[in-house]
Amino acid sequence: MKEDRMPAERYVMGLFSDEDQAAAVAADLPNTPWKLARVHSPIPSHKLAQVLKVKKSAVGWFTLAGGIIGFFTGFLLAIFTATRWGLIVSGKPVVSLIPFFIVGFEFTILFAVFGNVIGLITQTDLPDYGGLQHYDPRCSGSHFGVLAACSEDGQAELEDYFRRKGGQARVFEA
Question: Given a cut of 50, is residue 2 above it in pLDDT?
Answer without folding.
Answer: no
